[in-house]
Amino acid sequence: GLLCALVAAFAASDLSKFSTIPVFGVSKIEGVLKDVSQTAIMVAHCRSFAHSLGYVNDPIVASLLPIPVKVSEALALPRAWLMGYVEDPIGIFGWIAARTNVIDSFVMKGLEEMASSASSDGASLVILGAGFDTRAYRLAIPPEIALFEVDTAPTQSAKRKLLLSSTSAEGGTAIKGANGNNVTYVPVDFNNENFMDRVIQEGFDAGKPAVIVWEGVIPYLNAESINSTLETVAKRCARGSVLIITFVNEIPTEAAAKDKVYGGGAILEKIAKLGEPSAFQMPIGAEVHYMESFGFHVLSHLNSSRLEAMYFESIGDRTRVAGLFNVMALETT
Q1: Would you tell me which of 206, 289, 309, 323 could form a disulfide with 262, CB atoms 3.0–4.6 Å apart?
Q2: How far is Cα of residue 51 from the mean position of the Cα atoms in its chain?
Q3: Using one digit for the tens of pLDDT, what is the confidence trace for 171-223?
Q4: CB-based contacts of 9: which residues, under 8 Å, 6+ apart?
């Protein structure tokens, strides 16, 4: 009786700082991660937490996390297990979990279609602005697919050190992926270098189809940089290549409309406090036309409501997805 009472009290208590994603409260992390994007660490934390609860399949990401984040995650797990969903007043957990799953499915669908085609030899998966993405190591990627991760040198250096410390892989410019493919790390100074030039220098075949993942990057870039990258992919990648992106819509200015958006602008406010403010929001209703203006064919567009319905409502789960966030799959024509 006493144990049941304690459990009930714990489940009903106000422990929101542990039941959501407490990484926002983690102070600046030193050591190997000192120069790594704080949002990259936050996203990795969300994925690790989601894996522990069975929402996503990412057994690798925990090896990339610092001890303070692992401790905060351990504190959050019991409450989430008891409640059967993740309490999150701004929807960041639901957004990361849902987008991880849908991007995984888009990646595998695109690669499997390429692997079955006559032109599959030389096809690639490129993770652009990879951060602590783990798809090259955990997905069943066809072995003939070339793997590239593109990011800044400090983030790549930290990631490689952490991966090597948790596996028996050897160093160098490449680390083994899920099927033994070499994962080629391509360091890029995004302010002064064209990422396409750099991946081609490292062996990327722009004449063959590719799947390119550009996840969690667009909100932090200005419109000129975004347009330049979209134009580069649309014009320089082979026809039938797939670009998978995430972005955020503009926050409504009217109070009544803003109140209808789950989490409002709280996520962007939290991220800005990490020193990485959002610089670009897409006008609602302009998404498809914007992408088509570069010559892309829109294969799929999933906004927050659709993601929430697909991954949580469909199984009776009350976890929410932050409003205004989107995933798109685009095809070069």
Answers
A1: 323
A2: 14
A3: 445 677 767 678 999 999 887 889 999 999 999 999 999 999 999 999 999 99
A4: none
Backbone angles phi, psi at 244, to 5 degrees: -110, 125
Instruction: Kindly state the helix (H) or strand (E) to which residue 326 belongs, with its residue range.
Output: strand 325-331
Q: 321-332 pLDDT, tens per residue?
A: 999 999 999 999
Cross-strand pairs, 128: 150
Instruction: In whole angstroms, give the CA distance from residue 122 to residue 93.
Output: 36
Q: What is the mean pLDDT of residues 158-179?
A: 69
3-class DSSP assignment, residue 151:
strand
* 148: phi then psi, degrees, rounded to nearest 5: -130, 135
Strand order in the sheet with 124-128: 174-176, 182-187, 146-151, 124-128, 210-214, 242-248, 325-331, 297-303
DSSP 249-286: BPPPSSHHHHHTSTTTTHHHHHHHHTT------BPTT-
**Is 158 in a helix, a strand, or coil?**
helix
What Rg do the C-alpha atoms of the chain give, in angstroms?
Answer: 20
Alpha helices (H) in 184-222, listed in sequence order:
195-201
- Closest CA relative to residue 141, chosen from 112, 168, 182: 112
Given phi > 0 = left and psi -120 to 50 = alpha, else beta, which region is 31? left
pLDDT above 70 as % of the chain: 86
DSSP annotation of 217 reads: -
Q: Closest Cα partner for 100 from 141, 23, 47?
A: 47
